[in-house]
Amino acid sequence: MPESIKSVTLEAAALTHVGKVRTGNEDSFGVCLDAGVFAVCDGMGGAAAGEVASRLAVDTLLERLCAVTSREDRRKALEESIAAANRLVYAQASRDSLLQGMGTTLVAVAIQQGHALIGHVGDSRCYLFRASRLTRETNDHSLVDEQVRLGHMTQEDAERSPLRNVITRAIGTQDSVEADITELPIEAGDMLLLCSDGLTREVPEDRIAAMLRGPGSVDALCHQLIDAANAAGSHDNVTAILVRAA
Question: What structural domains does the chain harbor?
């Protein structure tokens, strides 16, 4: 069911898949449609630690952020929610030897009054699809992406690099973390895609854009994205949330 968020009406679909190689799913997602809050986390760590980290981060963020009704308070709440998620994951890893070293990426969007706040840590991404163009709204906190931004590596070299899995920031691996927070206006017809790297490692951005240009509900389009990752091999868990404004 779509929910009105002042100047836009939102509909959303969310899917996750273990992929074709992994035996467990360390991705987690959360949707709070009536509050316009969405999150994807990609966990890491031994045994079930990654799953614990990602689920704890998503639950913490949604619990704190979905209750905030004032746009003026949303940015502070988003920053504090990410910081709280970091503290909880770090504390749990410190208490339990089986969870030591666990962490998670995080990308979250809070939409209110025709604006979207985007917060992220790590290499899970948020894209804006507007007027048939796909634009990445987050910069990966990863070794290779930072080298690309500095001009030391081409995007093609980054995609082939054996270091492409090395992230430079994560939730829960240190006692504090700096999240990137950005804001953009949302217009009718826009779509936002939140995803783990299990999608973007398998499906090029031009292919993602081509699928989003096609007809279909957000549910159908979300299924197409996951199916495309699986058809390409799905070497990792893959998660996508697709939000459309009307």
Answer: 3-245 (3.60.40.10)
